[in-house]
Amino acid sequence: MLSLTALPTINATLNATSTVLLLAGYRFIRAKRILPHTICMLTAFIVSTVFLISYITYHLHVGSIRFEGQGWIRPVYFSLLISHTVLAIGIVPLVLRTLYLAIRRRFKEHEHIARITLPLWLYVSVTGVIVYVMLYHL
């Protein structure tokens, strides 16, 4: 059985995996390689969904974790955490809309919204890993 204490590390790994998949998907679409792009982006969506389930499960059982850092790192952490949290909430409907447009083969609209979704999704994935490192390893 998986311990609750393992979930933060698993969550950070899922975020890092999502980042790699998003970057690979972007490179594939720039090279007009549609199938690998589709596979990467769908896999990133699945990995991010698993992350969200794991994250909610962890925090329902453990609650919040207090950041213990002091000095200059404290405002850096909270600035990062706030931007990460706000965008993490906002990215969900953007990802769902982007995915919906692709499934419906409305590629012009998909491309337009993906130009907004991708950098925000990347920011959320990367800052999720940074917040984890700051919270659990500093």
Describe this structure in words.
The chain is an all-alpha fold. The protein has one domain. The chain contains four helices and no strands. The chain has helices at residues 7-30, 34-62, 73-103, 107-137. Helix 1 (7-30) runs antiparallel to helix 2 (34-62), helix 1 packs antiparallel against helix 4 and helix 3 (73-103) packs antiparallel against helix 4. It is elongated and about 50 Å long. The two termini are 28 Å apart.
What attributes characterize this protein structure?
138 residues, mainly alpha
Write the layout of secondary structure elements.
Layout: H1 7-30, H2 34-62, H3 73-103, H4 107-137
Question: What is shown here, in short?
Answer:
The protein is built from 4 helices and no strands. With 138 residues, it is an all-alpha fold.
